[in-house]
User: Fold this.
Amino acid sequence: QVQLVESGGGLVQAGGSLRLSCAASGSIFSINNMGWYRQPPGKQRELVATITRAGSPNYADSVKGRFTISRDNAKNTVYLQMNSLKPEDTASYYCNVVHLKWGSFTTYWGQGTQVTVSS
Assistant:
């Protein structure tokens, strides 16, 4: 099993910044893609950004140019630097990792961290 612990959420004014972290621990064999998703109030969960093990990022159009995803493979940790935050970024943010062991992929989710952007 792989456990994910997220941190870094909070309340910030529009235009401000926050940095989310997600550390994976447990019986880790190899972590493939890592990413962040979010779920705004009353809406479905959506992709924010993902990053491959080699460090290639992918972003939702709504966050391009404002958010940066990065990872530290030695620490099994993924980060999300969020700048120029907008009220519409308010959501619960969930870490996601794809674990690879003996050719089998398993997806794990964090417990979520709340980000609230006030106008």
Remarks:
- The two ends are 40 Å apart (CA to CA).
